[in-house]
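Researcher: Next sequence.
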Amino acid sequence: MLYAAAIAADEPSRIGFIVSKGVGNAVVRNLVKRRLREAGAASLREHATGLAIVVRALPASATASWDQLLSDYNAALEATTTRLASRPARAAAKDSAGTTQEGTPRA
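Model: Next structure:
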């Protein structure tokens, strides 16, 4: 599963990964994380700024090949960015500058 949110166009894109114990033991989870990091690094070349991405690895990712994992990642990213592009831009409140959507101060 891949979730994405638009952030300021001049901010560098960020990618986070969630790989739970349901995916497998530590060796399998680390393999999945390494593969997802590589897929994420490749996607940052195209989307260098303006996106916050979270990838949640499902248990099926433990048995997926590199090509299948990369293909699924790219398809999910493409679908998500297409949906984000079709949404109308939300006007930011004047007092929310410098905070996240939850209202917590940015680091």
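Model: The two ends are 27 Å apart (CA to CA). The longest strand covers residues 51-57.
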